[in-house]
Every structure is written in structure tokens, then in C-alpha cells.
Request: fold
Amino acid sequence: MKGLAALAFLGAIALLPAAFAQTPAQLAKRPDVRRALDYVNASESETLSEQIRVCEIPAPPFKEAVRAEELRRRFLELGLGHVRIDREGNVIGERAGSSAAPTLVLAAHLDTVFPEGTAVKVERDGVMLKAPGIGDDCRGLAVILAVARALSHAELKTAGTIVFVADVGEEGLGNLRGVRELLTEELKTRPTEFITIDSSGFDLVNREVGSNRYRVTFHGPGGHSYWAFGLPSAIHALGRAIDKVADFKVPARPKTTFTVGRIEGGTSVNSIAHTAWMEVDLRSEGVTELAHLDADLKRAVQSALDEENAFWSSEQKLTVTVAPIGERPVGTQDVLAPIIRTALAVDQALDIRSNLTSSSTDAGLPVRLGIPAIAMGGGGRWLGMHSLEESFDTTGSALGTERILLMTLAIVGLE
Reply:
């Protein structure tokens, strides 16, 4: 840990402009910053109430508008400037600094993985909160609101600008559409750093997991199961493909994974299927490994098609399409990168044990675009992520909120 602490100290100096260069430890000792940190700790019950309130507003993929309107309202109440909802549905509010740079995007995502109609009423049992999405990412949304609230309470004047964002399209087939719009259109060249609060506890995500997602669809003539017997079946071809995918061999390091997440096809029990499809998710921390896995999938699909067509003597053949439905870049921030070293210094200043880890978050896209970016945990602990039994352990959660506040100040600086 001493080695990491030394790197963190150097990183904090490297990242901050000379006009207001202070390490996170030095910042934490300033009376005005201490006032803000103490407020965060004292008002954590309000932050948890915010987390519950936001979570009880459904936000299924591509249907985040109602929750977005609540965040827009809260941004206005907290006195943020230039509050708006962009054309993709991101909620944006700004806290201007005295300088044009740095400009930090502090984000959390609005959407959940759960479909419309999912019960989202939060149950509370002691330190545990339980509801779909209560951690991912209602915690992140509550934390960015708490940071804005603390800055206002302590009347802190920053040198750089903070752009608060509640973004859409992080989950499922959203394909990072929110942050893509944000960084390529709405904000374009403005952000100098990007932090998303989208991880459990004190995670510090410096390795973004890349993913390629496809819908593979077999097409054929179809027909009656008895009278048209002998035609190739789209479902049989799909089964052959799934069997081949299930036998893929992948390395443990860098971690590489695959799954067939959804399947559908056919007309009735007594029909030869004319259409069948599967949705496939391929992931890896390594660019080369993801490319190899991608090639394996395409070979498996072609082989399944050829085998099904060859099995039958029919002149009518199946065809297949492999359509991309999502792509997330592999991204790595080296532990020597200034933004990582600064985060480590923040954790040291708050006596937090950093957990460098990998994940797939909104931070992957800014990394690809050359913007220093990380995902951080906002305290507490997620359990059962992406399940109906998802829960959030609030034990010590205030320290996570303090962490994000101090990290924000370490980047934008104070007047």
C-alpha cells in the first residue's frame, strides 16, 4: 500500500493545474472542504432517501424519461446552471468554475436492466435496501446529487467546471447511446476528465471490459412439420450454433466470456421454423482475445448453417444474418495515469482501501476518445446486481459519498 500511496501523491500533483495544485490530503484539511465533507457524512440519511425515491421511479431501457424529469427537477432545485435534457435523453446541469478548464463530467446512469412493469418499491430492513436497481445505478444518481448539495452547502467555489450528468443507455441494448451523444455532440471537446459513479463500495475501475453483441438470425422457407418434412429448420440450425458456442474455450486471463442471452423462433409445435434468432454477448478485457472470440462466433454460425443445409436434400436452403446490436470498447487506464493516481490519493486521504478492478461502464467510451475516465464506487455494497433480489448494504455508505466529493475537488480545484 505504501507504493500505491507514493504513486497517488505524485498523481495528484501531476493532474492538477499549478494555480491550485493541492493533494487530496491537503484539500481534506481545508476548513471549507472539511465543512463539506462533514455535511456529506451528516446528511447521508438524506442521500439514502434520495436513492430510494429515485429507485422507485421505473426506468427500463429506452424508457428513462420519467426518472430523467425527476433528475432535471432536482438539478434545478440544487441551483445548477444551464439545466437541460438533450436529444438523447441525458439530464445535464453545470456548476461553473472560475476557469475554462478543467471541465469534469460527473455522471451516473438513469436506466436499469429491468423491463417495464417490474416492481420497484424499495424494502428496507435495517441497513439493507432491496429493490431492482437500488445499487445499479440509483446509488450513483443519489451520490451525484449529494455532491452538488454539499458544494452548495459549503459555498465552495471551484476553479474548474463540474458538469453533472444523469445519462441514458448504459444498460442492455442501450449501447452507451447517452454518453456517446454527450461526448460527440452535446459537450464535444469540453470534458477534460470523466467519472461515472457506477460500481460497488470502493471499487476503482481502471480496466473497461469490451463487448461485442450480435443478433444472429436464421431464415428459411418453413412449412408443415409432416407434409414439408425434409426442409432445413431455422431452429435446428440455431440449436447447432448454440451447441458450438457452448463449447468455446476462452482464457482466464485476460478474463474473456460469452453467453447466448436470448433466443426466439418458430411458429407452432407442428411447423418447421422459418425464422429463429439468438442474441449473443462476447466480452473480454483484451482486444486480441475479443477479436478471436468474435471470429469464433462467426465461424460457428457459418458452420451451423452449412451443416443444417447439408443434412437435408432439399433445394430450399437456409440463410443467416449476423447483425451487430452493441459494441463497447476495451479500455485500460494504467495505474500510473494521473486520474488513477489521484483516485488512489483520495482513498489514502480518507483511509479507504482501494479496489482496482474491471467492469463495463460508461467510462469505456471517453477512454476510447482520449479523455481520462474512470468508474468509481459510491460507498455501501451492491448485492445481487441485475437480479430481482438486488440489494444495497448501507453500512459505511457516507464514506463513499465523501470519496466522490473529494475526488471531484481534487480534479477541478478550488479558488
The longest strand covers residues 210-219.
